[in-house]
Amino acid sequence: MNLLHIDASILGDASVSRTLSAAAVARLVADNPGLTVVRRDLAAAPLAHLTGAHLAAGAPGVEVSPQVRAEVEDGARALEEFLAADVVVIGAPMYNFGVPSQLKAWIDRIAVAGKTFKYGEDGRPVGLAGGKRVVVVHSRGGYYGPETPMAAAEHVESYLRAVFGFMGVTDLEIVRAEGVAVGPDVRARAIEQALGEVRRLEAA
User: Which EC numbers does the record give (predicted)?
Assistant: First the structure.
């Protein structure tokens, strides 16, 4: 089995989502030492944001610069990593109510017609990436649950559920640490609670 580990936080060792995603991967590997782990750090080695030049590069006879060609190839590798993965663990912090732009750039490289989705004869989307297990480890500074005043500003969990559901993923789990910017004590409790959820993740 293959596990793809994605991190998107720009905070390095200070990142809550990185701490928790590493713990989730360690938990799954401990239960299945035969897992092959591929890690992509989207902050250390970001994918280029999708441009018209990248899309045009796939057309016959179009000449592109070496830089664009390299960026297209990197995007293709990201897609192949995703397609080859049985389990995907994603460290997803909330930045300004949404996912980091680095994570969005990765999603733009894996949401590819004919690879991870298609449209049926009736025009409805059909996901082609079903059968994968996706574990999202999500951190956010405040409180954005459905019962909170900021619920309408939550665009991380809702977005990731939508985009992976569009690609056919039905096995999606979310481990959440929230309130991590409220204060040191709240941060510590949130991390400990999330680590408890990580320890309860089922074997891969």
Answer: 1.6.5.-, 1.7.1.17
pLDDT, one tens digit per residue, over 7-50 is 999 999 999 999 999 999 999 999 998 999 999 999 999 999 99
Residue positions in the annotated binding site for FMN? 9, 15-17, 94-97, 139-142
Paired tokens of 32: 């299945």
Q: How many CA atoms lie within 13 A of 200 on its CB side?
A: 9
Domains held by the chain: number? 1
The domain that holds 116 is classified in CATH as 3.40.50.360
Write the single-letter amino acid at 144: Y
Instruction: Please tell me the predicted confidence (pLDDT) of residue 63.
Output: 87
Binding residues: 9, 15-17, 94-97, 139-142
Domain with 119 in it: 2-199
What is this structure's pTM?
A: 0.95
Q: What letter represents residue 133's amino acid? A: R
pLDDT tens per residue across span 158-176: 999 999 999 999 999 999 9
